[in-house]
Amino acid sequence: MQSAKTERHIEAVNRQVDLHDPHGKHRVVIIGGGFGGLYAAKSLRRSDVDLTVVDRRNFHLFQPLLYQVATGGLSPGEISSPLRAVLRRQKNARVLLAEVTDVDLENRRVILVDGEVPYDSLIVATGATHDYFGNPQWEVDAPGLKTVEDALEIRKRIYVAFEAAEREPDPEKKAAWLTFVVVGGGPTGVELAGAIGEIAHYTLKHDFRTIDPGLARIILVEGMDRVLGTYDRSLSEKAKRSLERLGVEVRLNAFVTNVVSDGVTVTRDHTGTFVPARTILWGAGVKASPLGRILAEETGAETDKAGRVKVAPDLTIPGHDNIFVIGDLASFGHQGDQPLPGVAPVAMSMGRYVANRIDDRLRGKKSKPFRYFEKGSLATIGRSAAIAQFGRIKISGWFAWVTWLFVHLMYLVEFDNRLLVLMQWAWNYITRNRGARLITGKTGRLVE
Amino acid sequence: MQSAKTERHIEAVNRQVDLHDPHGKHRVVIIGGGFGGLYAAKSLRRSDVDLTVVDRRNFHLFQPLLYQVATGGLSPGEISSPLRAVLRRQKNARVLLAEVTDVDLENRRVILVDGEVPYDSLIVATGATHDYFGNPQWEVDAPGLKTVEDALEIRKRIYVAFEAAEREPDPEKKAAWLTFVVVGGGPTGVELAGAIGEIAHYTLKHDFRTIDPGLARIILVEGMDRVLGTYDRSLSEKAKRSLERLGVEVRLNAFVTNVVSDGVTVTRDHTGTFVPARTILWGAGVKASPLGRILAEETGAETDKAGRVKVAPDLTIPGHDNIFVIGDLASFGHQGDQPLPGVAPVAMSMGRYVANRIDDRLRGKKSKPFRYFEKGSLATIGRSAAIAQFGRIKISGWFAWVTWLFVHLMYLVEFDNRLLVLMQWAWNYITRNRGARLITGKTGRLVE
């Protein structure tokens, strides 16, 4: 039985305009609301297009600060902006919360789990994730850091480990709870290892009664002969020393060759050593999102060994000039060069480029090929420690850290008034506290 | 194979002092780190006792603001404080992250899932939860608001509903997605309904393209003839008008007699009406935590109909003068009076009382029976709307809201520098934004 009020409500809802009609405008569909997709969308704000941003999440995630969530320094809400809020005032844009399964090239439709969206131009920006080098079963015991859920899982494991150590009477088991292995010496691995070092030595210093968190062992395993391998060798060395000051053991030229729930096998010079450890975090490898491979198969495009789509100089898929691939999903390199790294500034730059390219086409203008102007690279190791490289200028230490903080907050502020994040940060810095170190989850139990 | 380094690490860990030895001091065990338990712990800071706080969560939750998390205004980390951080400097206290299953009265031990803790005095403060009046199966479709996980689930449902409505072509189904039913006109129900009203009319105003969120129907169902029944009748009337200004339909003398996944049956004057609704939130009933019933069975104590333990004038279980029950788990009333309400000020007051009582006993001093000095009650309806009652003084509207804000922040600040919360709030107030409106969960899918 429905009341008259219910019926009036339904009628009122029904009178709403349905924008599924494209108004005859050029339809641009962007898959993915990360840095690439979102900057493409924003750069199209004055263009005469009908724009749809499809994402399976309802928020843009400020990925470079995700390790802060994973270590209890910031809350997920502080490094995310609802996609609808970001694009609220952009009249030519709509946001669709949906999961993309395929692209129908012939009929120019993006296929969703529960529907489809027609396009004239398509921008694919679905990113990449970490890779377990053919051992996907390791993920259970060694989670990677890509989503908010990953970050909360890692946060839980780190803090549960100290809690379990506090209660464990057996000294060997206690030691395993107090051993943290981080796999991969790239930015994510370095940030995580550095943050755990801070947690052990400062944040939790006075928190326990039967353990000294400062006795925690943090081991960073890297296959190359240095950490942060995309930086200058002198900076890698400085980063390593900063990590060691935070109590991190850096093992270079070493590989994790097996992962089980209570430890890892670290192999160096063909000799494997089992390291008992209850917390193993994965920060290695790059694997393009599955849509890359699907697109490559359908278009005949090449992919690199990480599954990234090799794009033309204008970031289109060769032979498909209305399909752009940008960000971490794209493999873009001038002949013989290394492909551009999967970092936010590259994705943002690509997003702006394809927006302008589409706009130029609609106006009948020519565009130049994409070119990335190196803006410099920054990586942080921990409190007051970072390295930065701007062309020939190399800086490290406190000044690099402040630069890192400033650059990140500047971009974060663009989305919302994230000055509050700065203040939270300042507070954490002064007090060495991490107020967001909640152990949460389905049951909320200590060890599930 | 273990390296020499691993062995040294284990030895170092092993050398840590084990505080399981009670040093011969009077052992106080507090079960539960809510307002009651935490204030008891803090009030024992100068006492010559060996104190253990047992909680299955590693944080104290500022429950009165949990509805802000459920509606995307604040993040969980912003209304929680790690228990260890709160008690860090209190040398006589330790925190145990564990789940209590039973109390062994004869041997004075608290039984954990994985261990036990001996006590001389026991303070039980495990609180209460909502009650489905004999229909526990409704919880799946009508979640209540008690834990951080509950809040994130509700947040997800509220924002998924608008997303699903945006994509739903069928007008009846669209209307059901845009209908929100809140069961219970107490503080939680009123806060949730008011916040959803704000979200629909302000926060999401410009966010969608095929729906007008302002057309959302929000129905508050209350069995009594007024909302916020513990307040003066004039204030209940004011609260109702405030809710109506936010677009909430208040249905008094009405009961929810069935809950299914796509709607509820609302019964008034023996006539049931089915209201199609995809979001149903439960804010009704009180049920004591299971430990209350276990204790009552073992001690022969009486419980009230909500399962709360009827306590003696000194908050002990009659006949067991070393076991105290405080907070929402206790039913305390002078002869013939209504038992004290389950609110934070009562729990805090009880916590302080039992701490002093234990301290007095150890010093051989006598204590007076517990007396609660009414501090006044406050309830908020939404932006700029609240009611407050201090004895005969009754206030409502903006001034009551500012009072409410001030009182809550004052208590929140006690735990940590939560001025940041105030700033986040001020920002939300000015912009009407709710930046923490993330849809998160295991898969992160729109509808699982």
Could you characterize what this model shows?
The structure is a homodimer of 448-residue chains. In chain A, 32% of the residues lie in helices and 24% in strands. Chain A contains twelve helices and 25 strands. In chain A, helix 5 (148-167) packs antiparallel against helix 6 (171-177). In chain A, strand 11, helix 7 and strand 12 form a beta-alpha-beta unit. The radius of gyration of chain A is 24 Å and the shape is globular. Chain A has a six-stranded mixed β-sheet with strand order 5-2-1-9-21-20, sandwiched between helices. With 448 residues, the first copy, chain A, is α/β, with parallel strands linked by helices. At the A-B interface, helix 1, strand 4, strand 5, helix 5 and helix 6 of A face helix 1, strand 4, strand 5, helix 5 and helix 6 of B.
Task: Give the SSE layout.
Two copies of one chain form a homodimer.
Chain A: H1 4-14, E1 26-31, H2 35-43, E2 49-55, E3 59-61, H3 66-70, E4 80-82, H4 83-86, E5 93-97, E6 100-104, E7 109-112, E8 115-118, E9 121-124, E10 128-129, H5 148-167, H6 171-177, E11 179-183, H7 187-203, E12 217-221, H8 233-245, E13 248-251, E14 255-260, E15 263-268, E16 271-276, E17 279-282, E18 287-288, H9 290-299, E19 309-310, E20 316-317, E21 320-325, E22 330-331, H10 344-362, E23 377-382, E24 385-390, E25 393-396, H11 398-413, H12 419-431
Helix pairs in contact in A: 2-10, 5-6
Quick recap of the structure?
Two copies of one chain form a homodimer. In chain A, 32% of the residues lie in helices and 24% in strands.
